[in-house]
Predict the structure.
Amino acid sequence: MLEPAEDKNNVSSLQAMITSAIDFISALCYGQNVVKKTTNGWYSWRELYRTDSFCDHLLIDKEQHRVISKDKEERDTMKIGFIGAGKVGCTLGKFFTEGGIRMTGYYSRHIESAKAAADFTGTCCYDELSRLVHDSDAIFITVPDGTITSIYKELIKFDIRGKQICHCSGSISAGEAFPDAAETGALVYSIHPLFPISDKFTTYRELTDAFFCLEGDEKCVNEWKERLELMGAKTQVINPKDKVSYHAGCAMASNLVCALLHESIGLLKECGFSETGARKALAPLIRSNIGHILTDGPVKALTGPVERNDIGTVRKHIDCFRTNAEKELYCTVSSDLIQIAREKHPDTDFSEMENVLREELVNE
């Protein structure tokens, strides 16, 4: 007769077996593929069934397998490794594994970061760069822009013939970051997620709505364009010579907006608003304006004193600023708004408005 503890363990094992069997059968019936996590990453039931006994897998804990739909199955045999385990590396790694792309793992000069990223993505932590290079078909360098080339120079000490080398900077082309790549036999390109990656453990969920900008080796770029689009992302291939202009455009729509809103919040705080109160007050205005810009374009969305050619209000605005830097910012941006206003109202004479802003900028 079984002891109570032993009996309980057997029941738990039987429940785990039944649960796993149901998941497996359901996956086959609904055209899905079950994959389980091992020490070497995620592997499909079909792949494991060829190498191990089926019963062994029925005893796997439910927390150690998952079901993914056919359109997110592992798409090819390429294995991706990351050098750098910060926000970009961690986010892209999770996005890739969730999309069924195979990964080897992470190497970082900060081993704790590599361990955290490996745990988060269910991949391996490498303490030697040579091992990551050996195990990976494509190597993503996700480090600060200023260190990309120095990392690449470490890579070329190994045999990287036929391997893909990718960086994720928005402002540097692959040719610039990886000089003389043809001599190494490696294929080089860059993939830049056009998205503000603010948190290394949550932002991956939003990347299916992001654009990815690609440039570099044509074959690699085409392969990754297809991979990313199969995962639901949108892509744009650009000419390497346009990389800096592309990044400047992105910065103006993202980073520079932070500066304008910082100034706006500061003005409201001078009027008695708290920091939180100012953000809450501005939120409906910001959301509405951005929504109109994205839907109708900046010309149709433009409102305000410049659009109305209200010179008196613009003068008052200029006078309320306490520093020359604030006045210069306001006048510079408003001068650009005149060009948009002219397009919206081609019959309106904005010359006096233009002169007022120009005079202020000259006086500064």
